């Protein structure tokens, strides 16, 4: 199984003393081997550490943040994407997050499996992630820059001596990669209310 980051919405802050049966957890998205910037943007509304709802570990190793301002921050980011073919992925994200089945008071980000890939203490990594989320401007600019079209290199001209010996110019090799891959890499296109860890009955 891939190590994943897990994004949920919930009506209470994990670790709060609430009556059993009154807590709701709804799956939002999960991502293999990374914590995409989309998750960080959604966690940018008053983020703070909290107890994990998946792993029984000491200390706060998950993050919780307010739902509504996180969605607004994401909208601001998505509106800056000048990538016409990405529109269906953008619309899908906004529709999913606006659906009553997804909306809750808080987002919860569980990254324990990602943290386990590193030797640093998990609680320290969670604190570092929180700091990243509170200071996203540079990462946002980098992410938007990654969507800019890359110039195609022209073949080098063949000098006259090379022409004399029949050397031909090197043809430009076109990439056949999915042109939308940089957009998917932001964390789009993977929304679901059902994740590997089902916390709906927690």
Reconstruct the topology from this structure.
Blueprint lengths: L3 E7 L14 E8 L4 H6 L5 E3 L11 E5 H12 L8 H12 L7 E5 L1 H4 L6 H13 L2 H9 L14 H5 L16 H4 L18
Antiparallel strand pairs: 1-2, 1-5, 3-4, 4-5
Overall strand count: 5
Poorly predicted runs are 172-176
The SS-based structural class is alpha+beta
- Our count of helices gives 8
Shape: globular
The value of Rg in angstroms is 22 Å
Global mean pLDDT: 86
Characterize the main sheet: 5 strands, antiparallel
Sheet with the most strands: spatial strand order: 2-1-5-4-3
DSSP strand content: 5-15%
**What is the CA–CA distance across the termini?**
23 Å
SSE pattern, N- to C-terminal: EEHEEHHEHHHHH
Helix proportion: 25-40%
Give descriptors for this structure.
202 residues; alpha+beta; five-stranded antiparallel sheet; 8 helices
Commentary on this structure:
By secondary structure, the protein is of the alpha+beta class. The chain is 32% helix and 14% strand. The chain is built from 8 helices and 5 strands, in the order E-E-H-E-E-H-H-E-H-H-H-H-H. The chain has helices at 37-42, 67-78, 87-98, 112-115, 122-134, 137-145, 160-164, 181-184; strands spanning 4-10, 25-32, 48-50, 62-66, 106-110. It has a 5-stranded antiparallel sheet with strand order 2-1-5-4-3. The longest helix is centred in the middle third of the chain and has 13 residues, at 122-134. The radius of gyration is 22 Å and the shape is globular. It starts with a strand and ends in an 18-residue tail after the last helix. The model is unreliable at 172-176 (pLDDT under 50).
């Amino acid at each position: 199984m891939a190590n994943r980051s897990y994004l949920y919405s919930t009506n209470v802050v994990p670790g709060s003393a609430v009556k059993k049966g009154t807590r709701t957890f709804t799956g939002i998205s999960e991502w293999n081997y990374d914590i995409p910037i989309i998750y960080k943007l959604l966690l940018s509304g008053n983020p703070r550490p909290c107890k994990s709802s998946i792993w029984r570990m000491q200390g706060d190793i998950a993050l919780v943040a307010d739902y509504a301002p996180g969605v607004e921050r994401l909208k601001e980011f998505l509106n800056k994407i000048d990538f016409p073919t990405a529109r269906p992925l953008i619309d899908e994200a906004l529709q999913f997050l606006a659906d009553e089945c997804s909306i809750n008071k808080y987002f919860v980000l569980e990254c324990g499996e990602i943290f386990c890939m590193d030797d640093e203490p998990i609680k320290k990594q969670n604190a570092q992630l929180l700091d990243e989320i509170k200071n996203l401007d540079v990462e946002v600019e980098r992410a938007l820059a990654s969507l800019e079209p890359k110039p195609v290199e022209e073949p080098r001209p063949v000098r006259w001596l090379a022409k004399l010996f029949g050397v031909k110019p090197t043809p430009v090799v076109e990439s056949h990669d999915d042109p939308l891959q940089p957009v998917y890499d932001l964390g789009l296109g993977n929304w679901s209310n059902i994740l590997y860890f089902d916390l709906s009955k927690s």
